Amino acid sequence: MTGAADCSLGAALRALRTDLDLPGAFPPEVLAEAEQAARAPDLPAHLDATGIPFLTIDPPASTDLDQAMHLERRRDGRGYRVLYAIADVAAFLRPGGALDAEAHRRVTTLYFPDDRVPLHPTVLSEGAASLLPGETRPAALWRIDLDGDGVAVATDVRRALVRSRAKLDYAGVQRQIDTGTAEEPLALLRDIGRLRAEQERARGGISLDVPEQEIIEHDGSYGLAYRATLPAEAWNAQISLLTGMAAARLMADAGTGILRTLPLAPDGAVARLRRSAHALRIDWPHHVPYAEVIRSLDPGRSNHAAFLQECTTLLRGAGYTVFEGGDLPDPAVHAAVADLYTHCTAPLRRLVDRYASELCLAATAGKEAPEWVREALPALPKEMAEGTRRAGTVERACVDLVEAALLEGREGELFDAYVVDVQDRDPAVGTIHLRDPAVVGRIEGGTAPLPLGERLRVRLTRAGPAARTVLFAPA
Q1: C-alpha count within 13 angstroms, C-beta hemisphere, residue 123
Q2: Contact 141/29 with Cβ under 8 angstroms?
Q3: What does the pLDDT look like over 314-372, one tens digit per residue?
Q4: pTM surpassing 0.85?
């Protein structure tokens, strides 16, 4: 991307923040409260677990570290123990205070190519509350025992002081495990991750391995790439998923909680997916659940990648559901997880996780949830829905802007692409993936139906940060 394009992109990103009416700088009273909390967090009855050699696994540039883990074999030789420390944000936020109110206004951390809009002031989210290596931090410490097949057989969570020993990234973890140089606590990530993936398969859950479109920064410029998920990321995600399922079970047993729910896909959506599979020449026998079909796919093949993209339509409609008084909501299950599930592992970046953590700590202790938690529960689903929608809008708008800036001045050029989606009501309109550069765009203007999953020569008809999007037409 040229210097001029970088300048126009920077201006467009600043305009985007304004147009979306996003939170700006933290108010002075919020910053003052955060500074005070960073100096003197509330640490009642925290277990000293600083002797456990925790480690974190995150993208290299991340400093808002929510989770640290230590994996080991159970002493009875009958399975594994997962020790998972989650940042204890409640140790720093006074219920009803300025920090708390601002967190409810922001709901989630928002990420831009050149910056972020954090949920909490960075003195906390990237400082005193973050599980940075070599620092003693308050945490909700989960202990989840698994049998030899990876099934959870015992769960406990309590407040603790922890100290991470190392900040690792996914590529480095993958390299250590592949070369056999990882010490056992890290090497067990593969063993436990694979066992949990088998448990996911057994209960009918799905994890979509869709190549992600990623904004990359190099020497002050931005570009795009398709990033395939490393196995280490999937194994790490299984640990987080395990904890979310354990948390949901604790809340269900206690009779009060907030779940992440997703209804089963309606028959019409599955029927549409079957038509897409047929168009993409993907074998889907009638007796085989779509979860099994998904696991058989290779995202490196264009027709398989297109079908995986189509499968994301079955995961729409997720939300947050509160329950009290012992009766679980309907639906209670997250259809993709195929079990009860909640968000509890990212409290530095997502509002609801702080509340889920408090509910689980209370349930484990056999106590009623704090009053400030119970009072906030009814409003959380709506707050999280709005915050999640805003985060999705920001993510897509940022990618659109980088695409538009990357292709600025190239209108009329021809590109190789493949068709990943076709509209039902107008099959001449759809979505394409360019092979190079890594752009996903809308295509329209043709007269013939688009060939779903097929290669197609396309012409760029619109680009540039001012347009904030790209548009193609069949060549």
Answers
A1: 16
A2: no
A3: 888 899 999 998 889 888 999 999 999 999 999 999 999 999 999 999 999 999 999 99
A4: yes
Q: CA separation (Å) from 255 to 189, 243, 369, 384?
A: 32, 18, 11, 21
- Alpha-carbon dihedral angle through residues 416, 463, 215, 433, given to the nearest 10 degrees: -30
**Contact indicator for 235, 168 with CB cutoff of 8 Å:** no
Task: Give residue-wise pLDDT tens across range 176-230.
Answer: 999 999 999 999 999 999 999 999 999 989 887 777 777 887 777 778 877 778 9
Strand segments, DSSP code E, in 148-300 are 152-168, 212-218, 221-227, 257-261
Among candidate residues 351, 364, 354, 173, the one with its CA nearest the CA of residue 253 = 364
- Position 352: which residue type? V
Evaluate the CA torsion angle 253, 256, 262, 267 in order and state its sign: positive
Strand segments (E) across 4-128: 47-48, 54-57, 67-73, 79-87, 110-111, 116-117
Spatial separation of the C-alpha atoms in residues 304 and 106, rounded to whole Å = 37
Residues in the chain: 475
- What's the rounded Cα separation, in Å, for the pair 436 and 195? 37
> In angstroms, what is the C-alpha Rg of the chain?
23
**SS3 state at 408:** coil
DSSP assignment of 275-320 equals: HHHHHTT----TTS-HHHHHHT--TTSHHHHHHHHHHGGGGTT-EE
H or E element: which one contains 416?
strand 414-422
